[in-house]
Every structure is written in C-alpha cells, then in structure tokens.
Design goal:
The protein has 441 residues and is mainly α. Helices cover 68% and strands 1% of the residues. The protein contains 19 helices and two strands.
C-alpha cells in the first residue's frame, strides 16, 4: 500500500473542503463561542464537585466540600453560579448564530477581494440580520401573554436551526450588497450613516425571505422550521451520536484523517454541533438536580477527547519501555511527554512521525477507538459516572476525568486501565517500527 500516494490524493481534497468558506465559518463560529461554554461549566463544576473519594454513594449535599461551600456562602449559594450557567448554556444558539454569520461574511469579503466582490458587505450587519432572522424562527411557547420565547428557545436544541439561519441570511445579504438594491446618499453623509442606510434593503429582503420560509414550512403541517429540522436532521444525528457505534466511528474518522496528516479540526464542523447539543442537554439535567451518576445520554465529544488524549502518552511510554535502541524515537518521546500530559500530540504525530508511518497505522487508529468506545459504553450503562462537565481540553490527563465527572475517582481508574491497554497495544508495533527503521540503514 503506497500511503504517500493515498495522502497526496486525499490531503488536497480534505484541505479544500475544510477551508471552504461556509464550513470554515461554522468551525470558527463554534471556536468563538467556546469560552462561553467553559465559563458556564465553572459554576456547574462547583455545584457537582465532591472530595469524598471513599464513599461516592454519599448524597452530594453531604459531601465535605459542598457542606463547606454552604457554610461559606449560605444555603442558597447555588443561585449565583446557576444564573451564570443558565445564561451561558441557554443562549448558545444565539451566540453561534451571530458568530457564524460574522465569520462567514469575513470569508466572503476575503474570497471576493481579487474580483472586487462582496466588498460592500459588513460582518456586523450580517450578524444583526442573522440575529433578527433567528428570532423569527426560534420556537416559542404558549403563555397567558401569547406566544413567548423562553430560555429553551435559544438553547442547544436550536443550534442547528441557528446555523442554517446564519448561513442562509448571510448568503442573501452578501450577494444583495453587491447589487443596486441599496439606498444611495451623497458622499457628504457620515460613513456610519451611509453604511446603515446601505444595509436597509438587503436587511429587509433577507429578513422577509426567512419569515416567508418559516410560514411556508408551517403550511406543510410543521410547527415551524425548528420542528422540521429536528425531525429530519437533529433527532437522527443525536441518536447516532449517543450510540456505541457512533463513538467508534467518530474516533476512527478523527484518527484516520490525522494519520494522513490532516488535523482532526477539519472534521469539527461535522461533530461539534451535535456534541454541543448533547453536552448542553447534560448541563440542563444537572441544573435540574439529576445526579451525575444517573444522567441520560453521554457526552461523546468530551469523553472521546479525553480518551484520545491518552494515545500519544501511551506511545511515549511504549517507546521508553521497548524503543531505547532508537535514538530518534527516544528523543521525540522525551519532547512529547510534557505536551502529551496536557493532551497536545502534534510533536510526536508529526515528529516521529506517526503520520504515514505504516507501522503506526493500526495502533494509532484503533487503540483509542477501542478504549474510547469501551469507556463510552460504561457511561451509557451507568457503570461509571458521566464525563458531564466541560473542562478545557488542555487539562492534564487523569485530572480531566476527575474534574469532568464532578470529583469521582472511578472514571480516573477506568481511564488509567485504558492507558495501560493503549501502551500494551503500542509495544509490538513500536518494535516493528524500530526494526523497519534499522533495516533502512
């Protein structure tokens, strides 16, 4: 098998897809919203964290750490972090809608600069249009005052809808901004006023078009665009993404593209929206008092991130055990060990390299797929507490599962078992790789 030839065929295609302006806008829009998720998780972590490692069946309120917080801030102390978590968790769709529209407009402007196209578009105006459009289609609930928006209207359940509105509204706006459908004012008018009036007609057409689409969908028996998208797109994707098979396919896909030299971030527009929906669903369960050991569903994205982070450290340990005859392998492993503890694998992936190394194909692609799927399955059957609280991806290994599970030791034990399995999987292939390297010289 000529892996170099395969890479030369795949890499340009995948690179072109991942850098396509609409896909890149989705990826960058979610990255911009990431701090919001992490800030919301701090309050959630405080409310669900325990330090009693010997008796994890003890009710959370009786844990010494929780009792200390209650003593320090009063029995209603959770109202303060709850407010922050609720805002960060239940406005995620609005934020992502705005950030995607903003980034997509910037991409259009950059892409059309050589042809002098889309240069009249303004990213801020595009974000405002997307925001207005989202309020037209985000679901409302009946009340005594009539139909109203609730916190659930803007949460993760509307995430895919917000993405679609952002893309559709921005496409209409940037193309309309290049037409003559604008209000012309004298050059003496201040730039800020000129920019505002230039956007009036494109904004009106875009908003009217989105509203018309919403009414057409309702005419076909749906309660709105959200209902249509949920039944056709979101529900099936969530079903797949919260299954053992979905976990296995996710890891295989991410590892395989990395093996061919393509960073897994290229796949983030595919996996991130659904992972965010699942993660926010768990956050809402925790906010409503569900114990971390009894959550419905499991956060596939963060779980697999933590288990896949073991891969490069496992490879380093395998090299330390059986690869001392190779100065090259040993030196790269020494460089990787500190970054690897924090989940950064690029030094060894590209430096060893793992990329396009035939001896590394099987262990690199399948070790974390096996352990990650196993770990995910244990969460689904409630054998271990869920990795339910979002923590920064650079949190050190083993500490990450401890914090994300609310201070439970069992997830850390299972993660360590997975780590040992990964090391054992790598050992024979490291030996093979070093023998192959020696035969070249």
């Amino acid at each position: 098998m000529n892996l170099q030839h395969i890479s030369e065929k795949i890499l340009p295609a995948v690179g072109k897809i991942s850098n396509e302006k609409h896909i890149a806008a989705i990826r960058d829009g979610f990255i911009m919203s990431m701090p919001m998720t992490l800030v919301g998780s701090i309050g959630l972590l405080l409310q669900n964290f325990r330090i009693n490692l010997l008796n994890t069946t003890l009710p959370l309120k009786q844990d010494p750490f929780q009792k200390f917080l209650t003593f320090l801030f009063g029995k209603n102390w959770t109202a303060f972090p709850n407010a922050i978590t609720n805002v960060c968790n239940n406005l995620i769709s609005i934020v992502v809608t705005v950030t995607i529209a903003y980034m997509l407009t910037q991409n259009y402007i950059a892409d059309g600069k050589a042809q002098n196209k889309y240069q009249n578009a303004d990213p801020l105006v595009a974000a405002i249009i997307a925001l207005l459009g989202s309020f037209l289609v985000f679901p409302q609930s009946a009340s005594k005052l009539g139909a109203v928006w609730t916190k659930d209207s803007f949460g993760a359940t509307s995430l895919i809808l917000g993405m679609i509105v952002a893309i559709l509204s921005t496409i209409m706006y940037v193309h309309l901004s290049d037409t003559k459908l604008t209000i012309k004012l004298p050059d003496s008018v201040p730039p800020a006023v000129l920019s505002a009036f230039t956007a009036v007609i494109p904004l009106a057409i875009s908003v009217i078009a989105i509203n018309a689409l919403e009414f057409i969908i309702r005419a076909f028996g749906f309660t709105g665009m959200q209902d249509l998208i949920y039944k056709i797109v979101q529900a099936p994707l969530q079903g797949v993404s919260t299954s053992v098979g979905g976990a296995f396919v996710t890891v295989i896909a991410q590892n395989l593209v990395f093996f061919f030299g393509i960073h897994p971030a290229a796949l983030s527009p595919i996996f991130t929206p659904i992972n965010t929906i699942n993660q926010n669903d768990l956050t809402n369960q925790l906010l409503h008092g569900t114990a971390i050991t009894a959550l419905k569903g499991a956060p596939i994205g963060q779980t697999l991130q933590m288990l896949m982070g073991l891969t490069t450290i496992s490879l380093c340990v395998a090299i330390f055990l059986v690869g001392r005859k190779s100065p090259h392998y040993l030196s790269i492993a020494k460089v990787e060990i500190i970054p690897g503890i924090f989940g950064i694998g690029e030094p060894i992936i590209y430096g060893l390299p793992v990329v396009l190394n035939p001896a590394m194909l099987i262990p690199y692609v399948f070790t974390s797929a096996i352990t990650g799927t196993f770990y995910y399955w244990l969460q689904l059957i409630h054998a271990i507490p869920a990795i339910a609280i979002a923590v920064p991806w650079t949190t050190p290994l083993f500490l990450n599962t401890y914090l994300a599970s609310g201070g439970h030791i069992l997830p850390v034990v299972v993660q360590f078992i997975c780590f040992v399995f990964d090391v054992l999987m790598f050992i024979p292939f490291v030996k093979l790789a070093i023998r192959s390297e020696a035969n070249k010289f």
